[in-house]
Specification:
The chain is an alpha+beta fold. The chain is built from 7 helices and 9 strands, in the order ββββαββαβββααααα. The strands form 2 sheets. A 7-stranded mixed β-barrel has the order 1-2-6-9-8-7-5. It has a two-stranded antiparallel sheet with strand order 3-4.
Length: 312
Amino acid sequence: MRSIWAGAISFGLVVIPVKLYAATEQRDITFRQVHRADGARIQFRRVCTLDGEEVPYADIAKGYELPTGDMVVLTDEDLAELPLVTAHRIEVLHFAPSAQVEPILAAKSYYLEPEPAGTRAYVLFRDALEKSGKVAVAKVALRQREALAALRVREGVITLETLLWPDEVRKPDFAFLDEDIEVRSQELKMAASLIDTMTEDFEPDQFHDSYREALEAVVQAKVEGNDVVRPAGFEAPEPRKQPADLAEILRASVAALKDQRGQSDAPAKSRAKPRPAARAKTATRAKPAKSETDSEESKPPKTTSRARKASA
């Protein structure tokens, strides 16, 4: 895994340096939007609605549209001045019972790995948090946006769950909530009995994404049946054979370097002439007199008057 953030857990007077890693990933099959007729990819361009010109990404800013239709343009300088005291710190605010942090608030989960200097403090905080049965309610800023978060322990690692703000959770407003619906006690007992009968431990490994597997099978069947489209002008890259082990990788690298050097040296060798320069240098050493036929490289270095006095 690759860390996406580095900072510290601020727990009272304790500071624990940590790295942040994404704890989850999407395993969906990704598709490209293509032209149905020839399979060519569809391009999306950033075009200004005023002049119809394509706008480079460097010239794009954030804009907040007012109800009047006017636009407030925010620059990088405006955003840099916003107060983000938790930019590199996970600030623990307080602790709360785990059941009070409702699942609907959870946004995204991350793993926290300790830096070498903070491993002991990390383990101490982890063990104390796990023993308490509570979660740490905290604040953290990720990608220039401050979020509410919860720290809990999973498989020996402190996890950080970013939470939605309370006003980001919609209130359930359905008509049946205002209706007086009667449920008989016998029906409630039968429903409870059915729940007890179907109760078992939750083991995530026994579940799988059957839709994704079926979709992969459809794609594979089309590949095996050669039901593919080659868009015009597209050149597939040549497949490279991966060596089996590190020794073969190193051997292939050495051979490639030798080939490159051989190709670069060959033209130079073919243009090479007899070595008059070497003879000129030898003659220069034997006889310091200058010659008009000597090359610039064979001329002895100039000696200044100070150097001559020093040698004298």
